[in-house]
Design a protein that fits this description.
heterodimer, A: elongated, disordered N terminus, B: four-stranded antiparallel beta sheet, 27% strand, Centromere protein P isoform X1 (chain B), CENP-P (chain B), nucleus (chain A), coiled coil (chain A)
């Protein structure tokens, strides 16, 4: 999607640079007067500004109309007495709150002296999980000053592909990897924590949580652990496995019901999160 | 010239003040008076007391720029946010050093032309080992509701309480809608005689008609779908409308296989080039 990429490249990075220069000017400076010398350019600009101003005036009027009537009795003169300090303080609170709220979109952050520190939040099925940060230095080339991304996430690869051309894409991609990792880790942790009775020994996993192996049973009261599972998540941006191998290692190898169970388990592991598969085993066992 | 430059400056200052006024929850009357005040300050020269509020507004400017950065980055513009907390810790919990807090969040904003209002609850449970945060309820209200693809997506997000996916997919969905609109408008402008947008540029269909043979029509339907995992995908289809006579002459069954051929073309050329080649093939010999 070339078009959108170009827009973001121009949008986010250029935006940052613009904000950078704006911040170094003092507050009271207006924007430089337009450099266009052509009459018609100036005319169009005035026209556009007038339209925008009218639109904003209408918005302000609308806002005022929406506010509760109970305050309408206040004398107009009284409003001028509210100190600038208080008014600005209230606005500051609101803005700070909104900045905090951005974590619910998955990406939040703050300006630093070098550039910007972006915070990536992760979640899985409504569970809010760890967040990670990436501290970016606004220079040419853009670089990562430091970060809290785990070493087994392919950060170098992702930044080599996208960081210089499209910050937004870089961050979204990283977000995908981190969220998927957090989701896989959550499933493995839940399995270990809530269904240890169904496992023969601890769950074996790698740091990326994309290769899991365990031996399990489906009846809590059973003595043996007839099934052996190996789950591989080749696609690091997903929370469901790409390869599932279930082997039956019980002594009753000839019975067809074991084969049926084995096959149905494989299907379950492909389609449901790990800990939910065991929840359904537990529920079936109770019947 | 000078008078016009002055007008531009005055307009820009008023717009900045109006924008600030739009962002605050204020009692009536205050808006216009504070807009006036800000305008006055802008034209004032340096003064001692003003320097102090300058720092505060410098800080505000800092916050403003952070917000602007985030809304550009995520594509989501959050306008209002508030949270209330309720302590649900029972005495039994306290004995076991377990703390339970229920947070009620309210968030509203927009993603381009789509506005949303969210209300969700997060239950935080703190025990000796860990802190868990779970979204226990999610309600989403969206406007406008003419994007039918969105209502199914919204229900799914609510059911799964997947806030992050909601925002991510919404952003990409809107980007694709904008891209589709731009593409349709581009072709309408370039081939104004052949291309028609019967439901407008923001809709999902574009009709291509050969000006010389008005009985022949190609309808391109471009839907934007959000799948189970929240991935946003464009889905394009080609429908053909031809006179009965043409159908009878079509021995090679080109028309029947056209939709499939279009899909293949999309895969090879990409959306814009495929549409362009389709339009030009129908309008061969036309002067643009």
């Amino acid at each position: 999607m070339e078009w959108a990429n170009d827009k973001s490249k121009g949008g986010v990075l250029a935006h940052l640079e613009r904000l950078e220069t704006q911040m170094s000017r003092s507050c009271k400076n207006l924007e430089d007067p337009p450099r266009e010398t052509a009459e018609s350019d100036l005319g169009t600009k005035i026209h556009k500004l007038r339209c925008l101003r009218d639109k904003l005036r209408a918005e302000v009027k609308q806002r005022q109309a929406r506010i509760k009537a109970s305050t309408a009795n206040a004398e107009p003169d009284q409003t001028l007495e509210i100190s600038e300090q208080e008014a600005v303080g209230g606005k500051e609170e609101n803005m700070k709150a909104i900045l905090q709220a951005y974590r619910f979109t998955g990406l939040s952050g703050k300006r630093t002296s070098r550039g910007v520190c972006v915070c990536i939040s992760t979640a899985f099925e409504g569970n809010l999980l760890d967040s990670y940060f990436v501290d970016l230095v606004i220079q040419k080339p853009l670089r990562i000053h430091h970060h809290s991304v785990p070493v087994f996430i392919p950060l170098e690869e992702i930044s080599a592909k996208y960081l210089q051309t499209n910050i937004q894409h870089f961050l979204f991609c990283l977000c995908e990897y981190l969220n998927a990792y957090a989701g896989r880790k959550y499933q493995a942790d839940q399995l270990q924590r809530d269904f240890a009775a169904f496992l023969a020994g601890p769950l074996q996993r790698n740091s990326l949580c994309n290769l899991l192996s365990f031996t399990y049973k489906v009846e809590p009261q059973g003595r043996s652990f007839p099934f052996c599972a190996r789950l591989l998540y080749k696609d690091l941006t997903t929370t469901l496995p790409t390869d599932v191998t279930i082997t039956y290692q019980g002594t009753d190898a000839s019975s067809t019901s074991w084969e049926e169970q084995r096959a149905s388990h494989e299907n379950l592991f492909f389609t449901k999160p790990l800990h939910q598969v065991f929840t359904s085993f537990a529920r079936n066992g109770e019947r | 010239m000078d008078a016009r430059r002055a007008e531009v400056r005055a307009l820009e200052a008023e717009i900045a003040a109006l924008r600030r006024a739009c962002e605050e929850p204020r009692t009536p009357g205050e808006d216009t008076s504070r807009a006036r005040k800000s305008l006055q300050e802008i034209h004032q020269s340096d003064s001692g007391e003003w320097a102090a509020s300058k720092d505060l507004r410098g800080h505000l400017g800092h916050l403003e720029s952070e917000l602007l950065f985030l809304s550009t980055l995520t594509g989501i513009n959050i306008i209002n946010y508030s949270m209330k907390t309720e302590d649900l810790t029972s005495t039994e919990n306290t004995e076991k050093s377990i703390k339970k807090v229920l947070q009620r969040h309210r968030l509203s904003g927009n993603c381009h032309m789509i506005t949303f209002q969210l209300e969700f609850q997060i239950l935080e449970i703190q025990n000796k080992e860990s802190l868990s945060s779970v979204i226990t309820d999610l309600n989403i209200i969206m406007e406008p509701t003419e994007y039918s693809e969105l209502s199914e997506f919204v229900s799914r997000a609510e059911d799964r309480r997947d806030l992050l996916m909601f925002f991510r997919s919404l952003h990409f969905f809107v980007e694709w809608c904008e891209y589709r609109k731009c593409t349709f408008e581009h072709f309408k402008e370039k081939y104004s005689e052949a291309v028609r947008l019967p439901e407008g540029a923001a809709s999902s269909c574009m009709v291509v008609q050969s000006p010389r043979q008005p009985g022949f029509e190609l309808v391109i339907v471009w839907r934007i779908q959000i799948d189970e995992e929240g991935k946003v995908l464009p889905k394009l289809d080609l429908l053909t409308k031809v006179p009965q006579q043409a159908l009878e002459l079509d021995k090679n069954r080109v028309l029947e296989t056209a939709p499939l051929g279009f899909r293949a073309l999309l895969g090879v050329l990409g959306i814009e080039a495929a549409l362009e080649s389709l339009i030009t093939s129908l309008c061969v010999g036309e002067n643009h």
